[in-house]
């Protein structure tokens, strides 16, 4: 019996001469589980006690009654261990997260790849050695991070890669590819986006950006302050960053209409050899307020209903069109306010009502946010 037990489970060995205490590991689907089996002096399997690691306890949750039945029907220790491994096989098949545990060669492969790439590139690795974050620096000195989620059969299976980019990160992968290939392709992608980030960096540095509050490298939109309650939202094409971006002027009609007319009339003057910011100045015939000339508080006017500037991530973008009023509101606040008035009417998704401050006509689209 003992020889058969050792042959089938070479990592599970007796700890005493009486051979009533066995400790070690049992292997199922290339994964080792720590166990300790305590037998009574007469070696009756029915009275045996089993202690196991927390991973095995979690895996066997819901299978305890089956394991007890198998224990009572086992003739000896060999039979009991075999029955336990059978139950484990069933449990593993029902839990994909356990079934996908990598074999030992996975870890040796990973260490070899990191040694070739350079440990200085590693920013983070999780406790399961499945998710890594690698850093990279582009030619302008910008720091970037790519997150790599490796598959259990790495490198046979292509990993999932993600980064703070305005475009999807699609990598070319073969069974002979390594982390170094990912890092190299990441650097090439970063260089292809250098002009895009140069455009947005200039806007961030030389204008007051109202939205997003904390731009990421993936953000392609900037809402730039022009004046009090007047701004322009530009959407830059990451692949053609120097071309005319999508523009949307926001503010009261009496201020926005002349700017919109200039934009339409001067659109042909757009020069791809100049920066996007300089082109916007020339086309709109304006100078943008900058951190060097203005305080941001000049453009951070509070909502006239909730008296706050930011409502979740939104800023006031609905403005009364009366030139003597010009009070800004959050879209959600104005919609809720108008909806509660008996004089308010609605046509399709547009709500018509009166300004809470000057009682002049004002409209707002129905709020689509919960």
From TrEMBL:
Main location: cytoplasm
Entry keyword Transferase: yes
Gene Ontology cellular component terms for the protein in this record: cytoplasm; nucleus
Compartments where found: Cytoplasm; Nucleus
GO terms of biological process kind: DNA repair
Keywords: Cytoplasm, DNA damage, DNA repair, Metal-binding, Nucleus, Transferase, Ubl conjugation, Ubl conjugation pathway, Zinc, Zinc-finger
Pathway(s) this gene product operates in, as recorded in its UniProt entry: Protein modification; protein ubiquitination
Catalytic activity: S-ubiquitinyl-[E2 ubiquitin-conjugating enzyme]-L-cysteine + [acceptor protein]-L-lysine = [E2 ubiquitin-conjugating enzyme]-L-cysteine + N(6)-ubiquitinyl-[acceptor protein]-L-lysine
Every RING-type domain range: 303-359
Name of the molecule in the record: E3 ubiquitin-protein ligase FANCL
Native species: Umbra pygmaea (Eastern mudminnow)
């Amino acid at each position: 019996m003992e020889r058969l037990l050792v042959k089938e489970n070479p990592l599970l060995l007796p700890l005493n001469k009486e051979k009533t205490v066995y400790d070690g590991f049992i292997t199922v689907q290339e994964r080792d589980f720590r166990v300790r089996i305590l037998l009574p002096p007469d070696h009756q399997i029915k009275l045996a006690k089993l202690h196991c690691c927390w991973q095995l306890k979690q895996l066997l949750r819901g299978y305890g009654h089956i394991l007890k039945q198998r224990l009572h029907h086992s003739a000896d220790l060999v039979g009991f261990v075999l029955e336990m491994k059978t139950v484990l096989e069933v449990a593993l098949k029902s839990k994909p997260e356990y079934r996908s545990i990598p074999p030992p060669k996975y870890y040796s492969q990973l260490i070899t790849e990191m040694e070739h790439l350079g440990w200085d590139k590693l920013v983070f690795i999780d406790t399961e050695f499945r998710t890594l974050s690698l850093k990279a620096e582009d030619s302008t000195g910008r720091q970037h991070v790519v997150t790599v989620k490796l598959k259990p059969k790495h490198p046979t299976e292509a990993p999932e890669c993600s980064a703070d980019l305005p475009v999807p990160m699609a990598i070319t992968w073969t069974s002979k590819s390594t982390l170094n290939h990912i890092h190299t392709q990441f650097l090439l992608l970063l260089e292809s986006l250098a002009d895009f980030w140069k455009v947005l960096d200039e806007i961030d540095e030389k204008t007051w950006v109202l939205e997003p509050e904390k731009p990421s490298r993936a953000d392609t939109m900037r809402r730039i302050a022009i004046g009090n309650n007047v701004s322009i939202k530009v959407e830059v094409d990451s692949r053609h960053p120097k071309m005319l971006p999508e523009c949307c002027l926001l503010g009261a009609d009496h201020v926005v209409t002349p700017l919109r007319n200039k934009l339409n009339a001067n659109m042909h003057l757009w020069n791809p050899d100049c920066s996007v910011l300089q082109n916007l100045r020339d086309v709109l015939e304006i100078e943008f307020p900058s951190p060097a000339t203005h305080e941001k508080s000049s453009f951070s006017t509070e909502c006239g209903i909730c008296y706050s500037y930011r409502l979740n991530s939104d800023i006031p973008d609905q403005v009364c069109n009366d030139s003597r009023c010009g009070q800004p509101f959050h879209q959600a606040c104005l919609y809720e306010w108008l909806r509660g008035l008996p004089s308010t009417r609605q046509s399709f998704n547009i709500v018509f009502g009166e300004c809470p401050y000057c009682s002049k006509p004002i409209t707002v689209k129905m709020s689509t946010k919960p």
